[in-house]
């Protein structure tokens, strides 16, 4: 196996491909991380406080969340990309290890993001659509020298994330599905979509009531997950797999309320987009002719830097730069302007031959680049425009006094030498092609072994043990496997992907909700679980997992139920304006159906089931207690 992997790695390292898809992947992964940190910050009191707003967590958590969010933005725009990736990985590991974020509020998303964040450290995602590329252009370019950073990466930069984050995960998940009766019946996508706690607000009844379609989807998912890792790198299968995966995960986003996981998986399919598609997309977006021609002083270092910056952000190729020394007198509109005046300002001509100068040139640049048009409009506002013109005039007057002497040329030469030195240092530490191939191959072998440990342990042996086939040797192997899994779980995010299986949904016949009485004595639903039994926005993702996977389960444990009722009522009670010195909430329960065989209209029947009051939650002077009917919670 090792030799086959090594051969595969060598071939992959030798094949260079455009880095654009990798840059798009980094941008969207950074945005997902950012939105998740924003989510954590919004629910910081619910997640991190022992008792929301009453027994609060350390304020340092809020500070670190802000740092994490800022770092996610750096990662998104590609600024100090590798360092930002390391910091992001550090935050995921620390928060999932030392806070309740994983133990009580996870659902599998954190482990997926730990694995993705670890891979991101080593992927050259900064080679496309990044500020790091702009830094290199500015650093190594000079008068008469334009530096273009590498725009290609080895094809392994695409294959490895797909194999590890998708392929192994899918294979593990499919193995678990074989032990779930409703998945074996082809209803793995249908059953969770009928359960009120898991569904979104979009009514999918027209699909759910088509038995043949639902079974086709269910069996297709299992087959897709089993074969993905074996065929995704073959060209003929790439687009069909990409389309199927995009449809499956878009369906998760639209139909279920675990959208972070759905988006997290979906962005990996940017790595499967054929390179010719990216090229055609780029060509279709770029203009055939520039919308604005800007004239700049070729001997001015600041003007050259301006050109580099504008061209870096001009993704639609709307701006064309021409040197004053070579082209100015070819345009009649510039003939009436003296040479000294031309050197004092930045001039531009649009397609209608309208002439702009100074700050008006920058406004036109922003307008013509389209996606920056809002900034151009803002600068036009009276007051802002006049302040901007004064700032521009001060900078332009200083620039006009600058000349390029021998120091300019020496700096350019030094930049070129520094670039060579940097490349030599990188090659020294990165190693030869053979060394890099062996390192990557060994890493892949380790990851495969660790993933197989998880899959075989929890996907096969654990479930066979539940059938009564336990022995002493098996128990020893289980302990060893658990020890290995605990480390790979924390640092690589390798975890069993046994989501929405029969052992979780079987017997899930009752759900709970909470209401309160407003100042007029009218009963209202807490903005958590609504009258249909759905968890409403923004209580999705990890908050949904807390309530539907830990607090309320087929076999409810009183300590978890009471713990999270306390958290939810304290958090949302304060949010809706209740005083926890004297507040009362009503606990409601209703029956739901979770059949393992297809039935028509289960979703609507579950949503329309009536509620029954089974108890109340009383807050008195900041203290909490529950008065509940004589019901055996474990049998619910």
From TrEMBL:
GO molecular function: protein-disulfide reductase activity
Membrane topology qualifier: Multi-pass membrane protein
Transmembrane domains' residue ranges: 20-41, 61-79, 86-103, 150-170, 190-209, 216-234, 246-271
Compartments in which it is found: Endomembrane system
Principal localisation: membrane
Statement: the UniProt record of this protein carries the keyword Membrane: yes
Superkingdom classification of source: Bacteria
Alphabetized UniProt keyword annotations: Membrane, Transmembrane, Transmembrane helix
One Pfam entry name: DCC1-like
Boundaries of every HTTM-like domain copy: 14-277
Keyword Membrane applies: yes
Xref: PANTHER family: HTTM DOMAIN-CONTAINING PROTEIN, SPORULATION-DELAYING PROTEIN SDPB
Annotated protein name in UniProt: DUF393 domain-containing protein
Source organism: Nitrosococcus wardiae
Lineage: Bacteria, Pseudomonadati, Pseudomonadota, Gammaproteobacteria, Chromatiales
């Amino acid at each position: 196996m090792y030799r086959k992997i090594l051969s595969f790695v060598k071939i992959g390292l030798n094949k260079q491909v455009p880095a654009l898809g990798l840059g798009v992947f980094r941008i969207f992964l950074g945005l997902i991380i950012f939105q998740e940190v924003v989510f954590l910050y919004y629910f910081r009191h619910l997640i991190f406080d022992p008792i929301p707003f009453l027994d609060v967590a350390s304020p340092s958590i809020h500070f670190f969340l802000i740092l994490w969010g800022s770092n996610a933005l750096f990662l998104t725009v590609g600024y100090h990309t590798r360092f930002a990736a390391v910091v992001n990985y550090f935050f995921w590991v620390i928060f999932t290890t030392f806070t309740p974020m994983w133990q009580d509020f996870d659902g599998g998303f954190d482990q997926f993001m730990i694995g993705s964040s670890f891979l991101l450290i080593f992927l050259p995602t900064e080679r496309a659509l990044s500020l790091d590329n702009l830094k290199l252009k500015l650093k190594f370019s000079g008068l008469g020298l334009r530096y273009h950073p590498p725009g290609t990466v080895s094809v392994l930069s695409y294959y490895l994330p797909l194999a590890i984050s998708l392929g192994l995960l899918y294979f593990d998940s499919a193995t678990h599905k074989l032990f779930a009766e409703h998945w074996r019946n082809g209803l793995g996508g249908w059953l969770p979509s009928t359960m009120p706690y898991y569904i979104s607000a979009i009514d999918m009844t027209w699909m759910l009531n088509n038995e043949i379609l639902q079974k086709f989807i269910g069996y297709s998912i299992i087959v897709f997950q089993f074969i993905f890792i074996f065929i995704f790198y073959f060209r003929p299968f790439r687009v069909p797999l990409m389309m199927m995966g995009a449809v499956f995960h878009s369906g998760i986003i639209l139909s279920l309320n675990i959208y972070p996981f759905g988006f997290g998986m979906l962005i990996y399919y940017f790595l499967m987009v054929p390179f010719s598609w990216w090229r055609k997309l780029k060509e279709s977006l770029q203009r055939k002719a520039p919308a604005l021609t800007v004239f700049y002083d070729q001997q001015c270092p600041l003007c050259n830097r301006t050109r580099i910056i504008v061209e870096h952000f001009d993704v639609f190729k709307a701006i064309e730069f021409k040197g004053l020394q070579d082209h100015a007198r070819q345009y009649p509109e510039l003939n009436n302007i003296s040479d000294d005046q031309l050197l004092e300002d930045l001039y531009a001509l649009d397609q209608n031959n309208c002439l702009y100068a100074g700050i008006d040139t920058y406004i036109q640049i922003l307008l013509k680049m389209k996606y920056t048009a809002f900034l151009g409009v803002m600068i036009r506002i009276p007051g802002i425009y006049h302040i901007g013109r004064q700032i521009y005039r001060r900078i332009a007057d200083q620039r006009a006094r600058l000349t390029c002497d021998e120091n300019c040329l020496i700096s350019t030469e030094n930049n070129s030498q520094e670039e060579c030195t940097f490349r030599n240092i990188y090659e020294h530490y990165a190693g030869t092609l053979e060394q890099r191939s062996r390192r990557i191959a060994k890493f892949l072998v380790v990851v495969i072994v660790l993933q197989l440990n998880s899959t075989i342990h929890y996907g096969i042996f654990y479930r066979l043990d539940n059938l009564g086939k336990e022995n002493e040797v098996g128990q020893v192997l289980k302990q060893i496997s658990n020890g290995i899994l605990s480390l790979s779980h924390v640092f690589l995010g390798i975890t069993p992907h046994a989501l929405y299986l029969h052992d979780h949904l079987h017997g899930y016949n009752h759900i709970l909700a909470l209401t309160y009485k407003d100042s007029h004595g009218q009963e209202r639903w807490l903005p958590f679980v609504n009258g249909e039994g759905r968890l409403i926005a923004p209580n999705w993702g990890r908050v949904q997992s807390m309530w539907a996977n830990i607090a309320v389960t087929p076999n409810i444990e009183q300590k978890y139920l009471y713990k999270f009722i306390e958290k939810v009522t304290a958090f949302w009670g304060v949010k809706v304006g209740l005083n926890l010195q004297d507040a009362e909430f009503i606990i409601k329960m209703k029956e739901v159906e979770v059949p393992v065989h297809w039935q028509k209209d289960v979703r609507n029947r579950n949503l329309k089931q009536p509620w029954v009051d089974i108890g109340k939650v009383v807050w008195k002077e900041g203290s909490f207690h529950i008065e509940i009917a004589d019901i055996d919670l474990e049998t619910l």
